[in-house]
Design a protein that fits this description.
The chain is of the alpha/beta class. 33% of the residues lie in helices and 20% in strands. Bound molecules: inosinic acid.
């Protein structure tokens, strides 16, 4: 049986513009599923000039008739979720059980997770540069079997006892390691019971829901957050997030067997950015890097931090293509490069005098890698009005063809501006879905 499932993942270090691509593909999706990450994500969608930044709720929520699912692999900050629901409501998008389901198996980000994230970053000699949304500590507790799941909130006695024991332990850590005051388990319990009541109608067995949707022939879209190079297993560890932020995370994070995951769309910017610490071989530490940041408005959607900017990196992208099994590429923000005299692509690295074309696992070795560049002439023309690939300047077409040739993956979409309309769809299956 052919399943009508599609997954959208980031090819780089996050912030590739997945929100816009998911929004476009959601037009034809019945169900949109987040399967990992949490409020660290910031998915920006511009609809009729109005900007929406979604952190926990899948970008599909802007489409009537689409059911959004926050899967079991997501870690949920209930304060943030409720705020996001209220904000959408104020802007005319009503969120309820008709268009949002929350997995009963998802873990809850508790106040001590956020506190520990911030304190440990502050104290660490070698910082990760986290978003301080409590993501790492929450996933750590999940693995240590010290987590609180959404379902646990509805068993008041179990929740109270478990939370009491956990807070006692966390208070010892907060005091001993950071000299921070302890938290009060009873008031957290009451606060989270209140939140639980507010989301109760949304809580569901999303594993059954998503599998039944797929088996019933519905079109299901999986929305990856962060990017492949931030994946806890396959990214630039330890400078990564704490989940499997690539297609490998779908099965565990949504309860969907690998054989049901259909096409994989990789989203990459026409250049590259990274926020937070960690090696970035093609980074531009100069005026050009700053210029790209300003033209591309490269500031974090969640934290407002300036993003580090650099050239497109084929070595890192090839790694992402392999681990995700990417079928088609969406290249975003091509217009940001419009005025540059020349544009480079990192085609290989030089490590200690040797040329390599695979990303090294050792983070110190990656930091020593120097990019080998191929240089392309700039097109120096406005691409933002192009709606067909062959309407792009020839030099821009050559640049995109060089990327697809080197990666062996077809560029199915090109984004030339934030608005939905500013998108080039080539004749491919994915593009057809978005264009329908
Ligand atoms: P955490 O996910 O907050 O623990 O942060 C770990 C690393 O992932 C840091 O370098 C963050 O800047 C980065 N990160 C987390 N979420 C995102 C995202 O949505 N976009 C880009 N970088 C992210």
């Amino acid at each position: 049986m052919r399943f009508r499932t599609t997954c959208v993942v980031g090819v780089q270090w996050g912030d590739e513009g997945k929100g816009k691509i998911v929004d476009l593909l959601s037009r034809e999706a019945d169900v949109v599923v987040r399967f990992q990450g949490g409020g660290n994500a910031g998915h920006t969608v511009v609809r009729d000039g109005e900007k929406f930044v979604l952190h926990l709720i899948p970008s599909g929520v802007l489409h009537r008739g689409t059911t959004c699912v926050i899967g079991n692999g997501v870690v949920i900050d209930l304060v943030q979720l409720l705020e996001e629901i209220r904000d959408l409501g104020r802007r005319g998008i009503r969120v309820g059980s008709r268009n949002l389901l929350v997995s009963e198996r998802a873990h809850v980000v508790m106040p001590y997770h956020k506190q520990l994230d911030a304190l440990s970053e502050k104290a660490a000699a070698s910082k990760i540069g986290t978003t301080q949304r409590g993501i790492g500590p929450c996933y750590a507790d999940k693995a240590a079997r010290k987590g609180i799941r959404v379902a646990d909130l509805y068993n008041p006695t179990f929740f109270k006892n478990r939370l009491g024991a956990l807070v006692e332990e966390k208070n010892k850590v907060l005091g001993a390691l950071y000299g921070a005051p302890g938290l009060d388990a009873d008031s957290i319990w009451m606060e989270y019971r209140r939140y639980a009541e507010q989301i109760e109608s949304l809580v569901a067995d999303t594993t059954c829901y998503v599998n039944e949707a797929i088996d019933g022939g519905k079109r299901v879209l999986f929305e990856g957050a962060q990017g492949s190079l931030l994946d806890i297993d396959f990214g630039t560890y330890p400078y990564v997030t704490s989940s499997n932020s690539d297609a490998c995370g779908i099965s565990a994070g949504a309860g969907v067997p690998p054989k049901k995951v259909g096409r994989i769309v990789g989203v990459a910017k026409a250049y590259c950015t990274r926020v937070g610490e960690g090696p970035f071989p093609t980074e531009l530490n100069d005026e050009l890097g700053k210029r790209i940041r300003e033209i591309g408005h490269e500031y974090g959607a969640t934290t407002g931090r300036p993003r580090r900017c650099g050239w497109f990196d084929l070595v890192a992208s090839r790694h992402a293509v392999m681990i995700n099994g990417i079928d088609e590429l969406a290249i975003t923000k091509l217009d940001v490069l419009d005025q540059l005299d020349e544009i480079k692509i990192g085609v290989a690295y030089e490590l200690d005098g040797r040329r390599i074309d695979r990303i090294p696992v050792d983070v110190d070795a990656l930091a020593r890698c120097r990019p080998v560049y191929e240089t392309f002439p700039g097109w120096k023309k406005d691409t933002s009005k192009a709606r067909r690939f062959d309407a792009l300047p020839k030099a821009a077409q050559r640049y995109l063809r060089a990327i697809e040739g080197a990666l062996g993956v077809r560029v199915a979409m090109v984004s030339v501006g934030t608005d939905r309309m500013k998108t080039i769809l080539r004749r491919t299956r994915i593009a057809r879905i978005a264009a329908d």
